[in-house]
Design a protein that fits this description.
With 786 residues, the protein is of the alpha+beta class. Strands 13-12-9-10-11-14-21-19 form an eight-stranded antiparallel beta sheet, sandwiched between helices. Strands 34-41-38-39-36-35-42 form a seven-stranded mixed β-barrel. Helix 13 runs antiparallel to helix 14. The protein is elongated and about 105 Å long.
Length: 786
């Protein structure tokens, strides 16, 4: 047996092979490209070797680099996984020449089945049923003549194709003439072989394959069949075993045909013989042989209890005893779905970027390479994971799959998870009456909103934000104007912590894929739904396909808020969905929204309320009066009494360089009660680090800054005042050029004001008693120190 095996692949299959090698006590060597330096298979392997740039042609398809990695690490064998070099005859021969075992079929096996037209001739010679078709065609005219003889529809196929590439269905001679050159071009570009042939096309066909394993001496066994009919553009998406509604006689005939064909070439290792099944005629035809481990091998392992990767490794070392000892028994039903980084609502366009959340149920098999924080590259196949359920029978497996998909979460980029949830509940899938065209007939409407433009700073926030971590330097974030934010959620019937959007100065343009109810609050924006004005503080029904354009702020105030019935379905980070862009976490990928982003909506939680009465809307102005509490640093230790009176009576001007970390104020300089900060620093504003509160008015030098929700938790500056909780919302609306005066209040007044505000939000009614007035501007406590 080998002591060390190199895996010439990446992603889920590389992780899968490493697990088996570890269980067998065999060392593993991973190879990786520039794009995969931080990938999971690299960290899981015992050793890893860099083999080139991100482009597959320069790394995972670079035979010389892979063989050199094997030589350098002393690997005695190479497992190619699936894709890349797994069916490459030249690679298998190069391994043999280098004295390294190729874990897979022999070069002769690969050569025999590598070209579809050769495999077709081999099948015909062994009495395997074939669909009416042709040998390689020389030109489009010959193809059109052959199609007329076979009868339409037909399908043009690239002889070296795979994964649905190089196939075109033709309904008439014009389609053949138009499609021939395109298929030949795709084949030449993707597989370096432009050969084309055609076959009769079965409209409601099923794709059924038989898993085989051979010992290279003529001994071949079948490990059951799989139904792979649910395909998108000829790419498998759902696979299961056993195949539903398949007559037992047909099942036996398929198995017999697969075994006879593989035995005829003394097939070695794992392989799959694929057939097209016509349920209307109970007839099947040979398609091709995949001379490798299949993506869907896991469902076969689940019902047989076998490890096909282990069988392949042992077979490459000359040990076929597990195959010869297998009882032939299978048990239960197993279904697999492929989770892809792609957007089903955008013609299945591949997605790339940061996967902020990857959660899978613990009680099902998941073959994956992703976790929270995985960077999804645009260079490779977008397969993220294979979710595999197993149950005593198919109905139970269908239920298990639905439940498993509901408990799976993938966030940060677009995936086909929501679409798969729809597929798993479709009549075609649940009933088992599947076909290769079934997925095209399943309607899917994602519960999403698309960002056409993001605005300069639009972020996802929630209330009260990320609490409990400020002592370790993680700020709470959350909405700067919590009053407007909370009122919007209350009007929509949301829970108070439902996530929404904070918009600064200029808003985004949003296209709704699904009907939704929204509420715009805070600063007045030039907001229009399909050109019609949108009223603030009023729930608004938006239909699927409508566009909401949120323009510039048109009056006092700086920040507006867009809340959604049900909130935004984004993953919590440290207990909150609030964005902290400086830290790069929370919200939508830890950043502001950008064109191309997709927001997922939650399910509505309650009943929307009527529009908020005009008298209850927070009053916005350019001249702000904000209540504050005295201290913690006052006179006479840090400031003179005249300084404190000056700070409390000055009309401060908001500086343009203000943001969520803090609002800078321009005004007179204090005289200071001391010459310097002593041991804390040269300037009298310096102090040894002390804890800050959100809304603290700290002096960084001679300039006061009102600390924002993304600011530091402690610092070395004095704070003469702190904005009271009920008035913090005003800080979020301070715009450059606005003026601010501070009104000092007592602790009791601050508490009553906060209670009155909470009552307003809870009831959407005026408080029973008016909120207590804040103290006279500039008034200070009777004592000189806090």
């Amino acid at each position: 047996m080998f002591t060390k095996v190199l895996i010439a692949n990446r992603g889920a299959i590389a992780c899968r092979i490493i697990r088996t090698l570890r269980a067998m006590g065999i060392g593993s060597v991973a190879v990786f490209s520039d794009a995969d330096a931080g990938s999971l298979h690299v960290s899981q392997a015992d050793e890893s070797v860099h083999i080139g740039p991100a482009a597959a042609a320069l790394s995972y398809l670079n035979i010389d680099a892979i063989l050199e990695a094997a030589r350098r690490t002393g690997a005695e064998a190479i497992h190619p996984g699936y894709g890349f070099l797994s069916e490459n005859t030249a690679f298998a021969e190069a391994c043999a020449a280098a004295g390294i075992a190729f874990i897979g079929p022999t070069p002769d096996n690969l050569r025999a089945f590598g070209l579809k037209h050769v495999a077709r001739n081999l099948a015909q010679a062994n009495g395997i049923p074939l669909a009416p078709g042709t040998d390689l065609l020389l030109d489009a005219q010959a193809a059109a003549r052959a199609a007329e003889a076979i009868g339409f529809p037909v399908i043009l196929k690239a002889t070296a194709g795979g994964g649905g590439i190089g196939m075109r269905i033709c309904e008439d001679a014009v389609g053949v003439l138009d499609g021939f050159a395109q298929v030949a071009r795709l084949a030449a570009g993707n597989f370096s072989d432009g050969g084309v042939f055609l076959e009769r096309y079965v409209r409601r066909a099923r794709h059924i394959e038989v898993q085989i394993f051979g010992d290279g001496q003529g001994g071949v066994i079948a490990l059951g069949e799989r139904d792979c009919s649910l395909q998108r553009r000829n790419q498998k998406v759902v696979e299961e075993t056993p195949a539903p509604h398949l007559p037992e006689a047909t099942r036996a005939a398929l198995t017999d045909a697969a075994v006879r064909l593989a035995a005829a070439v003394h097939y070695r290792s794992a392989g799959t013989v694929e057939f097209l099944y016509d349920p209307d005629r109970d007839d099947f035809f040979f398609l091709e042989v995949n001379t490798r481990l299949q993506v869907e091998h896991g469902v076969t392992e689940q019902v047989t209890g076998l490890d096909l990767v282990e069988w392949m490794i042992r077979g490459a070392a000359g040990d076929f005893s597990p195959m010869h000892a297998w009882s032939g028994r299978t048990q239960g039903a197993s279904i697999q779905v492929r989770l892809y980084a792609e957007d089903p609502h955008q013609d299945y366009r591949p997605s790339s970027g940061l996967l902020t959340e990857a959660r899978f149920p613990a009680d099902v098999r998941v073959d994956t390479w992703v976790a929270d924080g995985a960077e999804i590259s645009a260079y490779y196949d977008p397969l993220l994971a294979k979710l595999i359920v197993t149950a005593p029978d198919r109905p139970a497996a269908v239920t298990a799959l639905q439940r498993a998909l509901d408990r799976t979460r993938l966030s940060g980029i677009e995936t086909n998870l929501g679409w798969l949830r729809t597929v798993a509940r479709s009549e075609a899938f649940v009933s088992g009456q599947v076909s290769t065209r079934a997925l095209a007939e399943i309607a899917y409407t994602p519960n999403t909103v698309r960002v056409l433009s993001g605005g300069p700073s639009t972020t996802v926030q929630d209330y009260p934000g990320r609490l409990g971590y400020w002592d370790v330097g993680v700020p709470p974030s959350g909405p700067m104007d919590a009053l407007a934010f909370r009122l919007g959620n209350r009007l929509l019937g949301n829970d108070e912590d439902a996530a929404g959007l904070e918009i600064t100065a200029l808003g985004p343009t949003l296209l709704f894929d699904h009907a939704a109810t929204v509420c715009l609050t805070g600063a007045q924006l030039d907001a229009r739904l399909d050109g019609e004005p949108v009223a603030p503080y009023a729930p608004l029904a938006v239909g699927a396909g409508q566009t909401l354009k949120l323009g510039r702020a048109t009056g006092p105030g700086l920040r507006a808020y867009l809340l959604f019935a049900g909130g935004l379905d984004t993953p919590p980070y440290l207990g909150s969905r609030a964005s902290f862009t400086l830290g790069g976490f929370g919200g939508h990928g830890g950043r502001a929204l950008a064109a191309g982003d997709v927001l997922h909506l939650g399910n509505p939680m309650g009943i929307a309320s009527p529009p908020l009465a005009r008298s209850l809307k927070p009053a916005l102005t350019r001249e702000w009066r904000i209540g504050v509490l005295y201290g913690p640093h006052g006179a006479p230790d840090f400031f003179t009494p005249d300084d404190m009176a000056m700070v409390a009576s000055t009309e401060w001007k908001v500086h343009y360089n203000s943001n969520r970390t803090g609002v800078r104020l321009v005004g007179p300089k204090p005289q200071w009660a001391r010459r310097d900060g002593g041991e804390a620093g040269l300037h009298p504003s310096n102090i040894h680090d002390n804890a800050y509160a959100i809304g603290a008015v700290d002096f960084t030098g001679d300039m006061p800054i009102i600390l924002g929700p993304d600011g530091p938790s402690l610092g070395g500056f004095v704070c003469p005042f702190v904005v009271i909780q009920a008035e913090l919302w005003k800080v979020g609306q301070l715009a450059p050029g606005d003026t601010v005066v501070f009104a000092v209040v007592s602790d009791a007044e601050a508490v009553r004001a906060e209670q009155a505000q909470d009552a307003l939000i809870a009831t959407l009614q005026p408080p029973a008693a008016a909120a207590p007035p804040v103290s006279r501007q500039g008034a200070l406590p009777d004592v000189e120190t806090p």
